[in-house]
Structure formats: structure tokens, C-alpha cells
Specification:
- The complex is a heterodimer.
- Chain A folds into two domains: about 5-55 and about 375-425, Urease, subunit C, domain 1 (Roll); about 55-365, TIM Barrel (Alpha-Beta Barrel).
- Chain A contains twelve helices and 18 strands.
- Chain A has helices at about 75-85, 105-115, 140-145, 160-170, 185, 195-200, 210-225, 235-250, 285-295, 310-315, 330-340, 350-365; strands at about 5-10, 15-25, 30-35, 45, 50-55, 55-60, 85-90, 120-125, 150, 175-180, 190-195, 205, 230, 255, 300-305, 380-390, 405-415, 420-425.
- In chain A, the strands form four sheets. Chain A has an eight-stranded parallel sheet with strand order 6-7-8-9-10-13-14-15. Chain A has a four-stranded mixed sheet with strand order 3-2-1-4. In chain A, strands 5-16-17-18 form a four-stranded antiparallel sheet, covered by helices on one side.
- Chain A is globular and about 65 Å long.
- The relative contact order of chain A is 0.16.
- Chain B folds into two domains: about 30-155 and about 310-325, Rossmann fold, CATH 3.40.50.1370; about 155-300, 3-Layer(aba) Sandwich (Rossmann fold).
- Chain B has helices at about 35-50, 80-90, 110-120, 135-140, 155-170, 190-200, 230-235, 255-265, 270, 295, 305-325, and strands at about 65-70, 95-100, 125-130, 145-150, 180, 205-210, 225, 240, 280.
- A five-stranded parallel sheet of chain B has the order 7-6-5-8-9. A four-stranded parallel sheet of chain B has the order 2-1-3-4, sandwiched between helices.
- Classes of the chains: A alpha/beta, B alpha/beta.
- The interface of A and B includes residues 201 and 204 of A.
Chain lengths: ~425, ~325
């Protein structure tokens, strides 16, 4: 059914749009963007005037846990969580059980995603078989099955030669290598950022240089090979310095940051709440400040949550023993609107680049900007709504978040995938009843 | 002080006009839980408790009817027996649970172990555990009052209190004293608690050890650090030695125990550089010939055995004051 969506404000930096714009949608794709419309036979939907329409947000770093760890999350619950968080698409990491190092697992994930029928899922395949870091996966097979990138996330690609070869080989298919940069020998038994708070709390330290060293290594290798490297969950100012330098030298490096790294620091560790334990860890104010600067000035390319659900029992263990990671899909957009846009650090247009335009470009997938013929994926946000993020109310199976109870200015209003409204925010005035297609 | 009566005063404010009679905190997890006044109260109470240990009948009925569980997830002779004797002298009913031979060996989580214990309504739990922060987690789950007997690398508050008691017994004060803490500072909960307590009481603390074992951001603790033991012990009033474990060679913290002793071992010659009335302390157990020379450990300046006996009195004081806070007993 044809739908004419009348938006009093659409923000699409890819097309240089920030203002009123109408969209004609049919059969799940954008038929026309702006200009004069032949809207005969179209259902007319007026977007509430205080909402902003954006190209669908893409979270390029999510752990869906299926197959193998369904007690933490499933593709069903993970994709529901994604759209509740305003994401029309997510890229999922291969550290499932079995690891996604073959077409079989990739196809399983895609089939489950289709069945769930919520957010699009772009699988990321493993760099190495079993992510053991010894032998390359069959990357061509992974590409053919539907993977958009390769990563051994959870682990670094520790062997420099393997990283070199992966960069060379993956480039054949225009796939980036996404690295979890961490020198394992420097990591040791660390559980918290090496610094004053870890020292005071008696927690083994994770030095920032463990990340920086490998970031430098990967950028240098990308320079050597001409391949594309994407730095996952960047957390240290030294790493960002290396990325900036790499970009200046025209090396194909991009990076992402997670909301917890631009809102929390290692001060939060007092009390030993494992909802503040993640890898890479929460670091210093200076690192947080550097990341905020990088988000504004363009050296950071994307915001990605590293959504890492864990079962309550697992996080209820001693700080040393609890697994690293927090969920993030349903808090990211509100946190970004509150802490980045409302605080004046960056414009909404720039935020859309970080959440949509750039992730689409880095992964080489459709979306990121509204284009005739492309699937009608949209994220509708309310800049003015205030919301209290509650762990108990998330769609995710897991509750491991440090943001429980945070009052935030800005919220997701609705999420549209392929012209279908897959989520409306029940707590928002004017949301219930909003529907396209 | 007469401990045979069962009345107890509850005091609210902490201003200098009215002396502190109780501890405000519900648990003793860290030295940070105590104010200076509360620390002095514990030390004064310990003085009285010490007297009980010299009687023919070493018992007072103060904690009669209270159930105290010693929940030890790490083996420990010294600390556990010290707490046990303290509890028995106060007439409490004590229970010892250690990792060997309990459901913990079957893989039960800390929280589940605690909840099962809670169901039997103990009044206090004394916890020793290999993970930093274990006491904090227990405190979130248990109604019983928790006393930290050592959590991972984090703190060992009663050790610092008995160390302060020992120092006071010899030097009469702590303010202005030069205290050197020497050894594996990075992994030491004793060092952390002591450095907090001594700083709070106005001592001049100097940390000493190889650079690999000095905690990162040490200057943010507001104490001096040095890699020279000669520098650290010069004119010291108190020298506190810490254990260096053989396993520190894994992780390349030290090259060998032999070299460690040569560079950082407390020898008689090095002790000569301290003040003539210096006291030499060690939380135990000592590694002879590794962090401390035998003749120094057994020498006249060593107060290690006094620390052990003071431990009972100090722990009696802590248990008495913590059990009594906010309640009549």
C-alpha cells in the first residue's frame, strides 16, 4: 500500500537534508523523496510535529548469543530489543557457540532473523576458524552466505601475520576486518582499568596500552596491505590519537565507540557492581573527554553499543569472576540524544552520521541515507520526550546495564523496517496508533 | 569498663564534645567505613579487652546468644583462630565454615552460600575471600553484619587496626610517625588498609618495593613511594614488612626470590638505619630469607608475636562495638 509520510523535520546528512520533507513509500521501499508527489491512492500519515525522522539507525556491534547461549539472549529477543532501541538493523558478532565461521551458522542466523521479523541482521563472520586465531575461516564462503565483515571479537587477532593476511584477503570482498584490540599478554588477569580506582579497590588492572598497542599495529598493517580495518569499542585516548594519525596518512581505518565509554569512568567501580565490568573497561575522565571530542570532530566514525547480554546468575558472581559486558541496544539512542545533542556537543545531523550513515558505509550495506529504491528503514525520534530508562522494562532477555534509572532527555518514538512499523514507544504521547504500512 | 552488664548506650552525634560510644557503619568492610573517632574507640576498647585475656577465666558474657559465622574461602590459621578466640571470649556461638568440606566445593556460588547461611539467621558473618569486593556483595544480600577478614587484594581492616594498636603500645602515638611499608604492595590487602588507616591518623607513610609491585597511580593515594629500601627505612619509627610470594615470578613481577632479598630484604644492616626504637612488624606468615632475614624476624625489635596477641583483643573490640551499634544487648 502506498504511503505518503509527511515529516515536518527529517534529518539525513547523506542528502544534506534537515527540514521538512515528505516520503512516498510503497512495497517497503522509498519510491520518492521530496519534490512533487503523485499521492493518489496513498495513505497519508502525518508524523507528529515534535518528532524527527531519520534514516534507520544501524548498530554495528551486537552479540545475539544464538546459536548456543540462548539463556542470555536469542535472535528473537535481540532483534526485538534492537527495534525498541530504534535500530532498524544490527550487525551480530560471531562468538556464538558454535562460532560463526561457516555458511551453516550464518544461514541459521539469517533464517532466525527472518522469522523474528524485527530488525535486519547482518552477520559478521569469524576471521579464523573457531576464532582460535590459527587458521583463516573460509571468508569467501562467509561472504556468499551473507556476512558483511569479519571479526574474532571477544578476542583480538593476536597473531600479526594472521591479521595481515586477513586484511589482504577480506579486501578482495570489500569486507573490513573488525578487531577487538587488546594485547593479551598485557591484559593478564585484569578486570578493571589500570589506574587509581583499580589500585584502591584491589582489582587487577587492564592497562590502556594493551588496546593502544594493537590499534597501532592494526593501523600499520592496514597501511601496508591497503585493507580496511575497523577498531571495535575504542576506549582509550591513545587509541584515538592513533586512529587520527592513521586517517591523516590516508589509511583505511575507522572506529566505533560505545555509549558507556562517553558517559562513565572507572570511578563507577566503587561498590564492585558487575554492571560496570566490561571489556574494554571504563577508563579515565581524560579518555571519556577525548572520545567526546572525537565524536564531535569526526575522528570517531560510529556509535555501536557492543550489546553483550549475560544471564543474571552470571553477573551475580564476584567481580573477578563475572563475565565482561553490558546490554546497550535500548539505552543508546536516549543516552546519545541526552548526552551528545542536548548537551550541545554535536548536532542531530552529526549524530545521525554516527548512528546510521557511517555504519552503513563501513559495512557496505544499504541504508544510512534515504534513497529512492532502497528499503524504507526509518528511525523516528522525539527530541523533547523525557524518559527514565528501566532495566526491568527492556525487551532484551538480559538486564545487565549500568544505566538503570537514568533520566534521559530524548527518546525513540517509532522504528520502521521495510515500510512496516515494527515498534512504537508505548510511553510516548501520540505514539500508540502511529503506523505506516 | 564493666562488660558483665547487658546495658549499652546508643549515641547519635559525633562532635568533639560528646565521645563516640558506637560505630555508625553497619558493616566493617573497609577502613573507609570508620571515622577517626571510631578508630580511637576501637583501640581504646581493645585495651580493655586485652585485660580479659590475662584473667584466669578469659570470658565475658557480652555477646552471649549471638551467632557468628566465620566464613573462610581461603585457608588461614592466624586470622581465623584469632577471630574464633575473640568470639568465644565474648561468649558468642561460633561456627567455622571453610572451603574444604562445605557445599562451596560442590560449586555453589558465594551468593547462594550466603543466602543459605542467612536462612539460619546469624548475627554476624566474618568473611575471608579471594575476590576483592566479595564482602560488598555479601553485604547487599545479607541481613547479618559483615566483618571483612580479607577480601582478595582489597582490604584487611582488622589487621590494620591491630597494627595501629601495636604501634600505639610502643610509640604512644601515630601522628607524625615515619612508617615504611615494604614489599608486594600491589597485591597486599594489608598494605591498602594500613595505608588508609595510618594516613587518617596522621602518620608519614612511605611505600617501598620494586616498581613492578607498586600500585599504579600511587601518588593519588597521597603517600611517598620509593624503590630504595635504604631510603625507606632511614629514621623510620615503624617498618612493616609484607610477604612476597613465589608465584610473583609468574607475570614477571620479580626476577627471583634471591634477587628480591638482595635488593629489598630487611637485613640487620638495613635496620641500623632506622631509629633506635624502631619496631618491626609483619602480618605473617613470614618467608624467612625472602622479605626478612631470620635474625631480624627473631630479633629484639620484632613485634610480630605481639601483633598476633593484640589481634584477639582488637577483634573482640570490633565485634563488640559492631554487634552493639544501634541495638541494646
Amino acid at each position: 500500500m502506498k504511503t505518503l509520510l509527511r515529516c515536518s523535520r527529517m534529518v539525513d546528512p547523506g542528502r544534506g537534508i534537515d527540514g521538512a520533507c515528505d516520503l512516498l513509500i510503497d512495497n517497503g521501499v522509498f519510491v520518492q523523496v521530496g519534490g512533487d508527489f503523485d499521492a493518489s491512492g496513498a495513505k497519508i500519515v502525518d508524523v507528529p510535529p515534535d518528532w524527527v525522522v531519520c534514516p534507520g539507525f544501524i548498530d554495528m556491534h551486537v552479540h545475539l548469543r544464538e546459536p548456543g547461549q540462548e539463556h542470555k539472549e536469542t535472535i528473537q529477543t535481540g532483534t526485538a530489543s534492537a527495534v525498541a532501541g530504534g535500530f532498524t538493523a544490527i550487525a551480530c558478532m560471531p562468538n556464538t557457540d558454535p562460532v560463526n565461521d561457516n555458511a551453516g551458522v550464518t544461514e541459521f542466523i539469517l533464517a532466525k532473523a527472518t522469522q523474528a521479523n524485527k530488525a535486519r541482521v547482518y552477520p559478521i563472520g569469524a576471521v579464523s576458524r573457531g576464532s582460535l586465531g590459527k587458521q583463516l575461516s573460509d571468508i569467501a564462503e562467509l561472504r556468499k552466505a551473507g556476512c558483511v565483515a569479519i571479526s574474532d571479537d571477544g578476542y583480538p587477532v593476536a597473531d600479526a601475520l594472521l591479521m595481515r593476511r586477513a586484511l589482504e584477503y577480506a579486501d578482495m570482498f570489500q569486507m573490513p576486518v573488525i578487531d577487538h584490540c587488546e594485547d593479551l599478554s598485557l591484559k593478564g588477569d585484569g578486570v578493571a582499568h589500570e589506574g587509581f580506582h583499580a589500585s584502591a579497590l584491589g582489582l587487577r588492572g587492564l592497562p590502556a596500552v594493551a588496546e593502544e598497542l594493537m590499534v597501532e599495529r592494526d593501523i600499520t598493517l592496514a597501511g601496508l596491505t591497503g585493507g580496511a580495518v575497523h577498531i571495535a569499542h575504542l576506549s582509550a585516548r591513545g587509541s584515538l590519537r592513533a586512529v587520527k594519525s592513521g586517517k591523516e596518512r590516508k589509511i583505511r581505518v575507522t572506529c566505533e565507540v560505545a555509549p558507556h565509554h562517553f558517559t562513565l569512568t572507572h570511578e563507577a567501580l566503587a561498590g564492585y557492581d558487575t554492571n560496570f565490568k566490561m571489556s574494554p573497561p571504563l577508563r579515565e575522565t581524560a579518555d571519556c573527554d577525548a572520545i567526546l571530542e572525537g565524536l564531535a570532530d569526526g575522528s570517531v566514525d560510529a556509535i555501536a553499543t557492543d550489546h553483550a547480554p549475560h544471564h543474571y546468575d552470571e553477573k551475580a558472581l564476584e567481580f573477578d569472576l563475572a563475565p565482561f559486558g553490558i546490554i546497550g541496544l535500548e539505552s543508546a539512542v536516549s543516552i546519545s540524544l541526552d548526552r551528545l545533542v542536548h548537551s550541545g556537543i554535536l548536532s542531530l545531523s552529526r549524530l545521525v552520521e554516527l548512528l546510521s550513515t557511517n555504519p552503513a558505509r563501513i559495512l557496505g550495506v544499504e541504508g544510512g541515507t534515504v534513497v529512492e529504491g532502497a528499503p524504507a528503514d526509518l528511525t523516528l525520534i522525539s527530541l523533547d520526550a523525557t524518559t527514565t530508562f528501566k532495566a526491568a522494562d527492556v525487551c532484551s532477555k538480559a538486564r545487565n546495564t549500568p544505566f538503570d534509572g537514568w533520566e534521559l532527555h530524548g527518546a525513540v518514538a517509532a522504528t520502521v523496517v521495510g515500510g512496516r512499523t515494527v515498534f512504537v514507544n508505548p510511553g510516548l504521547d501520540g505514539a500508540t496508533g502511529f503506523s505506516i504500512g | 569498663m564493666d562488660y558483665s552488664t547487658s546495658s549499652h548506650q546508643v549515641v547519635e552525634s559525633n562532635d568533639s564534645a560528646m565521645p563516640v560510644k558506637t560505630i555508625q557503619a553497619r558493616h566493617l568492610l573497609s577502613i573507609n567505613d570508620l571515622s577517626v573517632d571510631e578508630i580511637m574507640l576501637i583501640l581504646e576498647t581493645a585495651e580493655a579487652m586485652k585485660e580479659i585475656g590475662s584473667r584466669a577465666i578469659k570470658k565475658v558474657p557480652t555477646l552471649r546468644g549471638k551467632t557468628i559465622v566465620n566464613l573462610f574461602f581461603e585457608s588461614s590459621t592466624r586470622t581465623r583462630t584469632s577471630f574464633e578466640i575473640a568470639e568465644k571470649r565474648l561468649s558468642a556461638d561460633t561456627l567455622n565454615i571453610s572451603t574444604v568440606g562445605s557445599s562451596v566445593t560442590k560449586g555453589e556460588t558465594l551468593i547462594d552460600t550466603a543466602r543459605n547461611l542467612e536462612a539460619m539467621a546469624p548475627d554476624m558473618i566474618v568473611l575471608r575471600h579471594p575476590s576483592s569486593g566479595a564482602c560488598h556483595q555479601l553485604a547487599r544480600v545479607c541481613r547479618a553484619r559483615i566483618v571483612n577478614a580479607g577480601d582478595g587484594m582489597h582490604e584487611h581492616p582488622t589487621q590494620a587496626l591491630l597494627d595501629a594498636f601495636t604501634i600505639l603500645a610502643h610509640h604512644g602515638c601515630i601522628k607524625g610517625l615515619k612508617v615504611a611499608i615494604i614489599g608486594d604492595l600491589l597485591h597486599s590487602r594489608v598494605a591498602r588498609s594500613n595505608l588508609l588507616l595510618l594516613k587518617l591518623l596522621g602518620a608519614e607513610v612511605c611505600l617501598c618495593g620494586p616498581p613492578t609491585l607498586i600500585p599504579p597511580s600511587v601518588s593519588d593515594f597521597g603517600v611517598r613511594s620509593t624503590t630504595s629500601i635504604e631510603d625507606a627505612v632511614t629514621d623510620a619509627d615503624v617498618i612493616m614488612m609484607l610477604r612476597i610470594q613465589k608465584e610473583r615470578m609468574r607475570g614477571h613481577f620479580v626476577s627471583s626470590l634471591r634477587e628480591y632479598f638482595n635488593v629489598f630484604g630487611l637485613t640487620s644492616a638495613r635496620v641500623e638505619r632506622a631509629k633506635s626504637n624502631v619496631i618491626i612488624m609483619h602480618p605473617g606468615p613470614i618467608n624467612r630469607g625472602v622479605e626478612i632475614a631470620s635474625e631480624v624476624a627473631d630479633g629484639t625489635r620484632s613485634v610480630m608475636l605481639e601483633q598476633v596477641s593484640n589481634g584477639v583483643a582488637v577483634r573482640m573490640a570490633v565485634l563488640y562495638l559492631l554487634a552493639g551499634s544501634g541495638e541494646t544487648i
